[in-house]
Amino acid sequence: MKIGIVGPALSGKTTLFQLLTGASATGHKGGIPQGAARVPDDRVDALSEIFNPKKTTYATVEFADFPSLGSSGELTSEAANRLKACDALAVVVRAHRDPSVPWPEAPVSPDKAFSSFLEEMILTDLAQVETLLAPKTKDKKQKRTPEEQRVLEACQELLEQTRPLSAGNWSADDLPILRNYAFLSSRPVLVAVNLDEEQLQEKDYEGRKNIVAECEETGYPLVEFSGTLEAEISQMDKQEQEEFLAEYGLTESGIARLAAATYQLLNLISFFTVGEDEVRAWTIKKETPAKKAAGKIHSDIERGFIRAEVINYTEFRELGDSLKNARDQGKLRLEGKEYLVQDGDIINFRFNV
Fold it and tell me: In what residue span(s) does the TGS domain sit (predicted)?
């Protein structure tokens, strides 16, 4: 799963990418830096303290830092096609007033910058839909099912109302059709507003009411952060970070909140494997059956799946942080291959190959 970071020039999107990934890009596919961001999880921290493993591994999310948009958020067809390779988008807009970072052109408030990008996504998809629905000549007969035709017409109606396709009320049968056409506005979107120190303290900036309202209307999560302060926070130890954040009325850094928000944006959850060798968070989609979840660890475990020993993290803590207590009290459940893994499940897979 990959999230594309996009935004106007000097919005702070590359700073955000570097802070999320530790500036350790894993590759530059097609000239686009890519890297993995660790998803903070207090449960992994606690399990690591309990089991004292040789290794602790957190869940991660992949990010790609796309080239800057124009000052008006315009999308070229090449840029739109590249973004379609992503599972979700993080749109970074600028609110900060740092004079050392001059605007490339006239200043644009964050609400207007985001609205421009949203409009560009919608227009890109509308042009694609209109092309698909245009009458074909005899030499180009249309090979489309009635269901596909209905979905495309519903897309056109929604887009003509200047609403993204993610706002549509789609059935389970509609979703594969939408994915097949790879419409840009059907993707989940997160909005990240880059603030200065004063704006972060006051929790106010130009256009805030508008961008909050637009995010609520579209269902897009909104994360406010300060790239300048986040760079300072990244150099502090844990206690210093907590004290620093408390001055701003925060319990988590903006980077931690954004990483967690993207995890939810992609409809992901974590299950855990624990032991002396490693405590690890494994990433799966919600409602993943146990047998398929086992395949995240190794294909042999999925192929030879027998049963899953399961206890949820919350119940594990209530039982004194002991798997032995859980087993003795009959709380360590044996689940079959169709069991839907829940967020926070601690699992030991039984298998035979």
Answer: 267-351
The DSSP bridge pattern shows strands 55-57 and 278-285 to be parallel
Bridge-based pairing state of the strands 189-194 and 88-94: parallel
Residue 311: strand, helix, or coil: strand
pLDDT in tens, 269-307: 999 999 999 999 999 999 999 999 999 999 999 999 999
- Percent of the chain residues past pLDDT 90, beyond the cut: 69
Residue reference for tokens 């396709």:
165
In the structure, how many helices (H) and strands (E) does the chain have?
Answer: 15, 13
What token pair was written down for 345? 């499940």
Q: Does pTM top 0.85 for this prediction? A: yes
Cite the beta strand spans of the chain per DSSP E: 2-6, 27-29, 32-38, 55-57, 60-65, 88-94, 189-194, 222-225, 268-273, 278-285, 305-312, 333-335, 345-351
Q: In what order do the strands lie in the sheet with 268-273?
A: 55-57, 278-285, 268-273, 345-351, 305-312, 333-335
The domain segmentation of the chain, as residue ranges, is 2-265, 287-351
| 2-265 and 287-351: identical CATH topology | no
Q: Report the DSSP pairing between strands 27-29 and 32-38.
A: antiparallel
Q: Tell me: pLDDT of 142 over 90.
A: no
pLDDT at position 22 is 79
By C-alpha distance, which of 259, 301, 252, 317 is closest to 5?
A: 259
What is the per-residue pLDDT for 80?
87
Give the whole-number percent of the chain exceeding pLDDT 70: 95
CATH 3.10.20.30 applies to domain 287-351? yes
Q: Taking CA 118 as the corner, what is the angle to CA 113 and CA 123, rounded to the nearest 5 degrees?
A: 125
How many angstroms separate the CA atoms of 108 and 46, rounded?
A: 44
Close Cβ partners of 195 (under 8 Å, ≥ 6 residues apart) = 95, 96, 205, 224, 225, 226
